[in-house]
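Fold in tokens:
===
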Amino acid sequence: MNLKMLPDSEKPRERLLKYGKENISTSELIEIILRSGTKKRSLKEISHNILANMESVSKLRDMEVSSLSNIDGVSEIKAIELIAAVELGRRVYEEDNYNELVNLTSPEAIINYFHNLFKNKKQEFFYVVYLDNQKNYLGKKLLFKGTVNYSVVHPREIFKEAYMLSSSYIICIHNHPSGDASPSRNDIETTKMIKEIGEIHRIKLLDHIIIGNNNYYSFYEDNNL
């Protein structure tokens, strides 16, 4: 049924206003985000199809545009809209968490805050965390996305961001999708290069952490900085 044909009391936007965001269904939330159906599928059919294609709504966190747009009635544009909404919600809670970060000197503390960035990733992702002169959190940035077992890191991008944030310290974090956190020759050479350039610019590399499956490697802990 077309939403326009529904009485106002049954339309998702009106129900949210009347009953509050906590008291409407997940399918209604999806309908509000997607706004309209297609020539072949009503909005309610599309929201039903999306939820029917996953075990629980939490699976939306891991969906990509390509997989969502394979669902009946979901165009690429609608997939992008839904994924953007999910990502915005994730960032809202993530930033609240990061605002509490202070004195990141322990690899365990760093991993506790950032391990979700690498969950179920099939490629290497290289992040840099930026800290002020008191080692308080300023921000993080994904700088490089590599292949299954290789990422290309250019120090220029790392330190450009550091200057923009007036950062005094940096921490590099990347994952090994293979599950083995042992540093490769490229990891060792890259870390040495970043450390040396950081010393020139007076932006100290505190650690480079590699995350595997239930294991990690810390250059700092291994006295390899």
